[in-house]
C-alpha cells in the first residue's frame, strides 16, 4: 500500500472509532488528529472537512460489511439460512454503529447527495443478495417465489417497518439494549414466518 | 334523536365532506356553516374551533369504520379471509380519507393529546380484531401461532413498513392512484405470504 493510502486509512479508522463511540456532532477533527498523532494540517490535507471524512468512513464501513456479509452467506447451506444470516448481520451492524448512523437518520430526506448515494448503493446491494437467495431457494425447491424482485422489496420494506415502528412509538433516538433485543426478536420471528410462507406453493 | 344531537351530526357530516375533499387547512368554518345553512354563531356554539370539530369528525369516522369492519369480518368464513378483508378495508379507508388524515401525518409525534388518544384506540381496536382472528385460526387448525399478541404486532408493524417505505422513498405527501395501487398490491401479497407462513407448524 502506498504511504498516502496508509495515512488515509489511519485517519478513517480513527474517525470511525470516534464517530461510533460519540457520534458525529460530539467528535472534533482535533481529537481525531490527536488519536493518531497527526497534525491538524495533515488531517485537513486528506479531508477538507468533517462531513467529507464522515462520508469516507461510511463508504469504508459499507465495503467491510458487504465483504463480511457475502462470506457469511456463502457458508450457509440453504436459502432460508442465508436470509436469516443476513438479517442477523444487519442487526449486529445497526446495533454496533448506531451512533454513527444516527446522524443520517436525523437528516432524513435532506441527506447530502454524496451520502444518499452510499445508502442507495448499500440498499441495492442488500436487495441483490436477497433476490439471489430467493432465486437459489427456487432452484433447490426450497421456495416457490413467483416474482423475485417484488418479493424482495416486500420483505425489506416490511422488516424496516418493524424497526421504525418500535423506535417511533417510544420516541427514542438511541434505543437501549432491551429495545434492541425486542426489535431483533421481532425481526427474527418475522423472517421465520415470511420464509415459511414462501415455502407454500400454489399461492394466488 | 334529540334536536341538539341531530344538529351536531349535521355539522360533523358537512365537515367530513369538506375535510375529505380539501383537507383541514383549506376548509373554513364559514364554508361548513354555509353548506348546511347554519349561522356561524350556531356552528361555534357546537364546536369552539376547527380543531375540536376535526377531532369529532375523526371520532365519528372511526366509529363508522369499526362497525363496518366488524360486520365485514364476521361474514368471512376463515381466519385468513378475515385478515385479508381487514387489510382491504384498511386500504380503502386510507385511500378514501387520505386528505383528511394527511394533517395528522404531518403533525407526527406533536399530535394534540385528544387526537393521539383516538388513534391509539383505533390501533388497539385493530390489533384486537387481528389477535381474535389468529386465535380463531388456531382453534380451527388453520394456523399454528404460538404468541398471539406478539405475532399481531409483527404483522401490523411490517405492513405499515410497506406503506411508509413507498411514500417516503418518493417523498410524496399525497400519493396518486398508481402509487396506491402498488402499495395495495404489495400489502395484499405480503399478507398472503405471512398467512401462509402461519400455517406451517413446528416453527422454531
Structural description of this entry:
- Two copies of one chain form a homodimer.
- With 204 residues, chain A is an all-alpha fold.
- Chain A folds into two domains: 1-48, Homeodomain-like (Arc Repressor Mutant, subunit A); 51-199, Orthogonal Bundle (Tetracycline Repressor, domain 2), CATH 1.10.357.
- Chain A is 79% helix and 0% strand.
- Chain A contains nine helices and no strands.
- Chain A has helices spanning 3-22, 29-35, 40-46, 50-75, 79-96, 98-107, 113-140, 148-169, 177-199.
- In chain A, helix 1 (3-22) packs across helix 2 (29-35), helix 1 (3-22) packs across helix 4 (50-75) and helix 5 (79-96) packs antiparallel against helix 7.
- The mean pLDDT of chain A is 88.
- The interface between A and B is medium-sized, with 31 and 31 residues.
Amino acid at each position: 500500500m502506498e504511504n498516502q493510502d496508509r495515512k488515509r486509512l489511519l485517519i478513517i479508522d480513527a474517525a470511525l472509532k470516534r464517530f461510533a463511540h460519540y457520534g458525529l456532532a460530539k467528535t472534533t477533527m482535533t481529537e481525531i488528529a490527536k488519536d493518531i498523532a497527526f497534525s491538524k494540517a495533515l488531517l485537513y490535507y486528506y479531508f477538507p472537512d468533517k462531513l467529507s471524512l464522515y462520508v469516507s468512513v461510511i463508504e469504508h464501513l459499507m465495503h467491510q460489511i458487504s465483504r463480511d456479509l457475502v462470506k457469511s452467506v456463502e457458508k450457509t447451506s440453504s436459502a432460508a439460512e442465508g436470509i436469516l444470516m443476513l438479517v442477523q448481520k444487519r442487526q449486529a451492524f445497526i446495533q454496533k454503529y448506531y451512533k454513527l448512523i444516527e446522524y443520517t437518520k436525523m437528516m432524513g430526506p435532506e441527506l447530502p447527495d454524496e451520502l444518499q448515494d452510499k445508502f442507495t448503493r448499500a440498499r441495492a446491494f442488500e436487495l441483490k443478495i436477497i433476490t439471489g437467495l430467493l432465486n437459489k431457494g427456487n432452484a433447490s425447491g426450497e421456495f416457490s417465489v413467483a416474482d423475485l424482485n417484488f418479493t424482495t422489496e416486500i420483505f425489506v420494506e416490511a422488516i424496516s417497518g418493524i424497526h421504525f415502528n418500535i423506535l417511533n412509538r417510544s420516541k427514542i433516538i438511541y434505543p437501549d439494549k432491551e429495545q434492541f433485543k425486542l426489535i431483533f426478536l421481532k425481526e427474527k420471528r418475522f423472517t421465520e414466518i415470511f420464509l415459511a410462507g414462501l415455502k407454500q406453493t400454489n399461492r394466488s
